Amino acid sequence: MISALLFAVLMESGSAAAAVQSPPPPAAPRETKVPQPVEKTLANGLRVIVVPKPGIPLVAARLVVKAGAAADPKGRDGLAQLTADVLTKGTTTRTAEQIAQGVEALGATMSANAGWDSSSIDVSVMSSNLEKAMEFVSDVARNATFKQKELDRERARTLDSLQVTLEQPDEIASLVAARLVYGDAPYGHNLAGLPSTLEKIKREDLVKFHRTNYHPDNALLVFAGDVKPESAFTLAQKLFGSWKSGAAGSQPAEKSASDTSKPRVVVIDMPEAGNSAVVIAGRGIRRADADYAKAVVTNMVLGGGYSSRLNQEVRIKRGLSYGATSSFDMRADVGPFIAAAQTKHESAAQLADLMRVEIDRLASTDVPATELVPRKAAVIGSFAFSLETTSGIVNRVAALALYGQPLSDINQYVPRAQAVTAEDVKSFATSHLASKNFNVVIAGNAKEFIEPLKKEFSDVEVISKADLDLTSATLRVRKKKE
User: pTM for the full model?
Assistant: First the structure.
């Protein structure tokens, strides 16, 4: 009787499951209109942009300086980031403690950071406290003192973090991949620096980087939230109007590696690692490239999220990894394309081959509508989500301004993504995603995968972690002559 009842329940469940096998089609994209940014340039050259969004009494602001890690001097990798780290740790009138306590008393947050093409100071605060919060931003941007004790503290913190980072196979593989793609060009080094480069940085280096690059005519200021444009312009004039313009430092003319650089297959032997990291990397596109929307949609199909092809093949179908992803990091110059995953040592060669097959499949087959429509919906949904906060709006608008794009593009993102066709994806993949042009890096216990890897690739370089030099395009420590 129980068996018969159980059978009936199972049959009923099966029928119900069969009835819902076909999911409903995606709904129409949600409208993501952002108020048109309003801008004004102060007499000293500071470009001020405001996106008014009343309703919630919050404002986010970002001061962007157009100099980042790509401007790090040779042998001083990590200088831009270290400068940003120490920037908020004391001025001519406030100590680090006074700055931290003052910002906290306003119920605000403030942070400084460096990217590849810029450095920035971010603040988020109630609109009623905006002026007081921006006083701190102006003070640290203009009057930072870079005291030696603060430099030593931030350098020690970074070195502690690097000590952990440089023992992780995925981190090592990513750093090696950057060197393979860019060689000794600025984009090739680690943004945060390395122990050997950080130790060389002196207080005078921070002072010089700040003096050379932190100028109003080399900067832009973005507000978003509960603030009227005229009020923001008046505030900017009050706090930044007397900031002296100067001979701002120029970015390197060429940041990326030569187009003729030959792809390499490199193994970093880490016998003690718990698993192996696989990274496939090459040149992508610039942020200002006309194919920006095509790149975003194409990547969403390939490796953007759980339902992407890489994750479907690597994780869901074969269980080789907890996840596989890909991305275009678009910058002022050609940024990298990276596909990455981690797996057991013995399946590393199989994973590398599978990822290359999936990359090439985009150029050889059409993406069906049943796949493309949901992936475009994911692109649009991610964009819409990023605009839910004032900080997200500031991030988007600041990027448009930094990379010389029309501010009106903030409201063109969705229609451009929607307009990408299967043919566009195939054409973009054909032009930009040929795995034969990409470097392959595997960091892990080499003896577990080296033989099958050599069957796939004729020229495999093996470098022990002890002999790895991430400061050089050769990747190898120079042996001292006896």
Answer: 0.90
Phi, psi for residue 308 in degrees, rounded to 5: -70, 165
Same domain membership, residue 289 and residue 234: no
Domain membership of residue 250 (yes or no) is: no
Lowest-confidence region among 252-256, 274-278, 283-287, 405-409 = 252-256
Burial string for 22-41 (b: 16+ CB within 10 Å, else e) reads eeeeeeebeebebeebbbee
Short-list 384, 108, 64, 407, CA closest to 222: 64
User: Are 35 and 369 a contacting pair, CB within 8 Å?
Assistant: no
Q: Examine residue 430 and state whether it is found in any structural domain, yes or no.
A: yes
Q: Would residue 296 count as lying in a domain?
A: yes
Q: Per-residue pLDDT tens for 183-199?
A: 999 999 999 999 999 99
Distance in angstroms (rounded) separating the CA atoms of residues 278 and 285: 22
Distances from the Cα of 146 to the Cα of 90, 103, 115, 116, 150, angstroms: 7, 19, 20, 21, 7
- Burial code of 230-268, b = ≥16 C-beta within 10 A, e = fewer? eebbebbbebbeebeebebbebeeebbbeeebebbbbbb
Bridge partners of 327, per DSSP, are 338
Residues 6+ apart with CB under 8 A from 161: 192
Longest alpha-carbon distance in the chain: 89
- CA gap 138, 134 in Å, rounded: 6
- Taken as a whole, the chain contains a residue count of 482
3-state secondary structure of 125: strand
Question: Looking at the structure, do residues 335 and 399 belong to the same domain, yes or no?
Answer: yes
- The per-residue DSSP string of 332-387 comes to SSPPEEEEEEEE-GGGHHHHHHHHHHHHHHHHHSPPPHHHHHHHHHHHHHHHHHHT
Output the six-digit token pair for 278: 């696989």
Asked, for residue 153, whether it belongs to a domain, the answer is yes
CB 309 within 8 A of CB 299: no
Domain residue limits at 381: 265-467
Quote the tokens at residue 294.
């095509």
Instruction: Report the share of the chain in percent with pLDDT over 90.
Output: 88
Q: Looking at residue 307, which CATH number applies to its domain?
A: 3.30.830.10
